[in-house]
Amino acid sequence: MDKYKQRKEIRLRIKNLTPEYCLSSNASICRSILQLPEYQNAPCIFCYVSTGREIDTRPILEDAWASGKRTAVPRCISKGIMELFEIHSWSDLETGSYQIPEPEACCRPVKSSEIDFAVIPCLSCDRNRNRLGHGGGYYDRYLADAVFPCAAICREQLLLEQVCHEAHDRPMDMVITETAIYHY
Fold first, then answer.
1. Is residue 9 helix, strand or coil?
2. What 3-state DSSP class applies to 160?
3. Residue 125 lies inside a defined structural domain of this protein
4. Domain for residue 126, yes or no?
5. CATH number for the domain including 39?
6. Chain segment 23-36, per-residue pLDDT in tens
7. From edge to edge, which strands make up the β-sheet containing 181-183?
8. Domain assignment of residue 59, given as a range
9. Comparing C-alpha atoms, which of 29, 36, 23 is closest to residue 179?
10. Could you tell me the pLDDT band of residue 14, with boundaries at 50, 70 and 90?
11. Assigned domain for 170 exists
């Protein structure tokens, strides 16, 4: 099976998830992130801003702000290219590319070298920490030279036995579901 077929399969599975399961798995996954030493000890985190049926990252972002962590979120700069910018509250966001909340243009840029821990979105992962993204290549390009630990968050019901991956696809350091943490 190729990535295109895997994405199609996972999008169908996402449509069939119950609201109760999504709420429950959101809470468990966020709780696991907040308890990770990698997160707790990170002065500066990178986290995506969730939309639609993605795992809700609001609790992570709000905890980071309350804990005094620098918080960087992505902004699409051009096709396949994103950069990170620091936000301090929801009011620092505006609707950006693909109707995704992004940092306003006036927000401070954050270099990759400043990041201590990252929460990465996916459509799916496998237990070997391979990530299936949405297909735009934004995260693959950004993470190609990253030295900070990356945790992909994925619902257990969306895990694949094996994600199709290529040489340029970077395995995550960990995959966190509502029932397990798959480590390096």
1. helix
2. coil
3. no
4. no
5. 3.40.50.10420
6. 999 999 999 999 99
7. 109-110, 81-86, 70-78, 44-47, 117-120, 150-153, 174-176, 181-183
8. 3-120+131-183
9. 29
10. very high
11. yes
